[in-house]
Design a protein that fits this description.
Blueprint (H helix, E strand, L loop, with lengths): L8 E4 L9 H13 L9 E4 L14 E4 L9 H11 L15 E4 L1 H14 L16 E3 L11 E5 L3 E3 L4 H5 L23 E7 L6 E8 L6 H15 L6 H14 L11 H7 L2 H16 L3 E3 L4 E7 L6 E3 L3 E2 L9 E2 L3 H12 L3 E6 L8 E4 L5 E4 L3 E5 L4 E7 L6 H19 L3 E7 H7 L14
Parallel strand pairs: 1-2, 3-4, 19-20
Antiparallel strand pairs: 5-12, 6-11, 7-10, 8-9, 13-14, 15-18, 16-17, 18-19
Helix pairs in contact: 5-6, 5-8
């Protein structure tokens, strides 16, 4: 509690008109942008201003809906929840599960119920007055050290290249697959104009309306420079700007329009600056470069094993249960399926010991996602069978597009761990629907679940 009290908590009040002084607004916006920095004196912000223009925050963790929410359009509750759904750590490589707490009156929560039906997804609920929040400490139990599990530490087998200068220089832009021929025509005049409308978020009354015109580029170099920045940003290699410029010029002059063109003429400057030309150029280069971003390395054994008992104690406020076969005092689970699977491991006759792998233990496996980005994921469970086989198990309800890449990376990790340590390691994905159909009693029964 002391971490969210006194100067650690910023409460932004408004007067009856809903306004605060300009100086306080700017100060508060600065605090909101920097609240997640380690040196921030403020740990939490309470405010009614988060839906206002200029509050483009992505670190909302608690949403409290108190208005009537009786408008048919449902714009306000959608915006309210939407602020909480913005990912706080969208750029980190580790698959971190973010959570937002939604609190509200009957009108607000009815909208949440409708979202559950439309998305076919059940949110976890907590009813104030009936449910009690309990925070426990998860730590190793010194009386159960015989249930400890050692996990080897392997060197990374994937590494993001620091430069793509050589790969970019070697690109043959004439061999880019599936590039459509761009039309030699100027951009749409209407597309260069847009109308801005400012409305009151509660009454939807129009407060301001203005029309803006986007200025046209004057030279091909302006367009090429912009595309180079976009491509470098897309592949997350901003230092490649100089290498990209000549290749983009070659692509636009030799390939994009199906014939050689002079992109320096006013007509062609307008043609290469269209939205379609931008999309084709940026997409073509990004696709060609993503497959070249990561290089494979030879695995090595960094440490023969790290014991789960070395995990620092950590607080946990979700479901737990006591188990004999784990070195921890409690099994900390994230959802109902994990709870069921953990009970299965506890009861399976061929499982000697197991653990739900805590994030604090720091075990991750590197993989390349569908977009070609180097990322890391944390397997759910580790188990040791009676015959000495060590297993990583990943429980899955819904599957996202990156699951197959994680599966492949985990299989490779197990193969490398087996080769380097002499201990047999296996990986198993456990889809919820298949697990419920199978109704296994022993771990060996899970052999019927085959990774696609």
């Amino acid at each position: 509690p002391e971490e969210f009290a006194a100067e650690r908590l910023l409460v932004i009040h408004t007067d009856r008109s809903g306004d605060i002084s300009k100086s306080m607004v700017e100060d508060a916006r600065l605090v909101a942008r920097e609240v997640d920095r380690p040196d921030s004196p403020v740990n939490a912000i309470v405010s009614v201003l988060m839906l206002r223009e200029g509050w483009d925050v992505q670190n909302v963790t608690v949403v409290v809906g108190l208005r009537p929410y009786n408008a048919k359009a449902n714009i306000l509750p959608e915006q309210t929840i939407g602020r909480g759904l913005r990912r706080m750590f969208r750029d980190i490589a580790v698959d971190y599960t973010e959570r937002v707490d939604i609190i509200g009156n009957k009108g607000f929560l009815s909208f949440v119920d409708q979202l559950e039906k439309e998305e076919d997804y059940a949110l976890e609920t907590f009813e104030l007055g009936k449910d009690k929040l309990e925070i426990v400490t998860i730590a190793f139990d010194p009386d159960k050290l015989e249930m400890d599990i050692s996990v080897p530490v392997l060197s990374p087998i994937l590494q993001r290249k620091k430069t793509l200068a050589e790969e970019i220089a070697a690109l043959d832009v004439r061999r880019f697959p599936g590039v459509p021929v761009l039309p030699v025509r100027a951009g749409d005049d209407a597309a260069r104009k847009f109308t801005y409308e400012g409305r009151d978020i509660v009454t939807l009354e129009k407060l301001i309306q203005r029309e803006y015109t986007i200025p046209e580029p004057q030279t091909a170099q302006e367009v090429i420079s912009y595309y180079a920045k976009r491509i470098a940003s897309d592949v997350k290699l901003p230092a490649q700007f100089a290498s990209l410029v000549p290749k983009i010029r070659e692509f636009l002059e030799e390939v994009a329009f199906g014939k050689k063109v002079d992109i320096e003429t006013p007509e062609m400057v307008r043609a290469i600056a269209t939205n379609v030309a931008q999309y084709v150029t940026v997409t073509s280069f990004a696709k060609a470069l993503r497959g070249r971003l990561i290089e494979e390395l030879t695995p090595a054994l960094v440490q023969a094993g790290r014991l789960l008992s070395e995990t620092p104690p950590f607080p946990f406020a979700r479901d737990t249960f006591a188990a004999r076969k784990t070195v921890f005092n409690l099994v900390a689970v994230e959802n109902k399926f994990e709870t069921r699977f953990a009970h299965f491991l506890e009861d399976a006759n061929d499982v000697a010991r197991f653990a739900k792998l805590p994030s604090r233990f720091g075990f991750t496996i590197d993989y390349v996602d569908a977009q070609g980005n180097l990322r890391y994921y944390e397997p759910d469970f580790v188990a040791v069978l009676l015959d000495g086989t060590h297993c990583l198990a990943e429980t899955k309800g819904r599957e996202d597009p990156d699951v197959k890449f994680k599966d492949r990376a985990a299989v490779i990790w197990c193969e490398n761990a087996t080769m380097l340590t002499g201990t047999i390691w296996r990986y198993l994905k456990v889809p919820q629907k298949e697990f419920e159909k199978l109704e296994p009693s022993d771990f060996a029964d899970l052999g019927a679940l085959v990774i696609d």
